[in-house]
Design brief:
Layout: E1 2-9, H1 13-28, E2 33-40, H2 43-49, E3 56-59, H3 69-79, E4 86-90, E5 102-107, H4 113-125, H5 128-132, H6 137-150, H7 154-163, H8 168-184, E6 199-200, E7 212-216, E8 222-225, H9 229-232, E9 244-251, H10 253-261, H11 271-285, E10 293-296, E11 305-316, H12 317-323, E12 324-331, H13 333-348, H14 358-366
Parallel strand pairs: 1-2, 1-3, 3-4, 4-5
Antiparallel strand pairs: 6-12, 7-8, 7-12, 8-9, 9-11, 10-11
């Protein structure tokens, strides 16, 4: 049985009693998961006990005479980089302040704690706290990297610092090393990727990179940057290594789907047609429909579509600055490599002379008479 640790911060005895009743009911109905609770009734106790071992925190807003105690606790958590989701349950829930850790706010009279437990279970099952929580897999791996990779070679890194004019370069290199080790954990994974893994977003800057998504201000069409990273590298003077940008248009998802399924438009909608449509869609979304379309999945902030390699073009950076909006969405590294490989393959194709094989085919067919 998996244990989910919840911190409950509440000073109302009636609410605490209801919490315990709902918790007993929830645990009795679950064979795979069990919620264990830690209950404190004031701000000072909560601050002392706060750490990264909890999977969720249920907070009241007013704690004894501290009418803003819940907000203060949430703020302390965010400032301390303690990555724990927060649920506010309060009779004065309208005064809960905005905080990125808060995943739900409800009135004490609207629903019960069992609803909160179900939400906590749902979040826990995503693996969020196991991966990003303080006791999670990333923390364990970071400790391994720190102890087994970096510290044994600390003298080398100290030498890198001495030889660098800009000391931050060494810090960035060390960060890349750590990211490479974390990525190595998943290299052999064969589980299908979710659309959200396809992108890195939201990007905090507007730096152009290979795989950056753009929107034309005048036409509303979407594009992707395909310029190589060496061209887009920023010089010391703040400019790129090139004065031109290679982009390809992203065609509307529904338009390309309709093109792919056009041959079935007049057929009866029966099981046989359905099977053909299924095969065609699998080819389309598996990037086997044609060599000049590449599928981009839909996410919450981007509708996706298909990169059209036939509609690639080069524009001046001045034109980009004037006519294009950087969406601050970046195709992640493993996927952009695949896109560039297909793009290169499409434009490198040469074809070959057609060989007259009629006689050879006829000779083989003779044996089937």
């Amino acid at each position: 049985m998996e244990i989910i640790k919840v911190l409950f911060v509440e000073d109302n005895k009636t609410a605490i009693s209801q919490f315990n009743t709902n918790l007993a009911e929830f645990n009795s109905e679950n064979d795979e998961y069990n919620i264990t609770e830690t209950i404190v009734d004031n701000f000072d106790q909560a601050i002392k006990i706060l750490d990264k071992t909890f999977d969720a925190i249920i907070l009241d807003l007013a704690l004894n005479q501290n009418h803003n105690g819940g907000n203060d606790i949430a703020k302390r958590l965010e400032e301390s980089n303690i990555r724990v989701p927060i649920l506010f349950v309060s009779g004065n829930h309208g005064n809960v302040q905005k905080n990125r850790l808060v995943i739900n706010i409800r009135s004490r009279d609207d629903g019960d704690y069992e609803d909160d437990f179900k939400l906590i279970l749902n979040v826990y099952q995503t693996g969020l706290t196991n991966i990003l929580g303080g006791r999670g897999e990333i923390e364990k791996k970071l400790s391994d990297i720190f102890l087994e990779t970096i510290l044994p070679e600390l003298d080398i890194w100290k030498t890198h610092v001495i030889n660098e004019d800009d000391k931050k370069n060494t810090e960035k290199a060390l960060l890349r090393l750590v990211v490479n080790h974390l990525h190595h954990l998943l290299e052999d994974e064969e589980t299908p990727s979710y659309p959200e893994e396809f992108y890195v977003y939201p990007i905090k800057d507007e730096i152009l990179r290979t795989g950056t998504l753009l929107k034309c201000i005048t036409t509303g069409n979407y594009f992707i940057s395909l310029s190589p990273a060496c061209d887009l590298a920023i010089r010391r003077n703040g400019t790129c290594n090139t004065d031109r940008l290679l982009i390809a248009e992203i065609n509307n998802h529904d338009n390309i789907k309709d093109i792919a399924l056009h041959e079935f438009s007049q057929l009866a909608k029966d099981a046989k047609t359905r099977k053909k449509v299924k095969n065609k869609l699998e080819n389309l979304y598996g990037n086997n429909f044609t060599n000049y379309y590449h599928y981009l999945p839909k996410i919450k902030i981007f509708d996706g579509g298909f990169i059209n390699f036939r509609r690639a073009k080069s524009i001046e950076l001045t034109e980009y600055s004037r006519d294009y909006e950087n969406l601050k969405i970046q195709v992640s590294s493993p996927f952009i490599k695949d896109i560039l490989a297909r793009f290169s393959s499409y434009y490198a194709r040469q074809g070959q002379p057609v060989i007259n094989s009629k006689n050879s085919i006829n000779n083989i067919l003779e044996s089937y008479k």
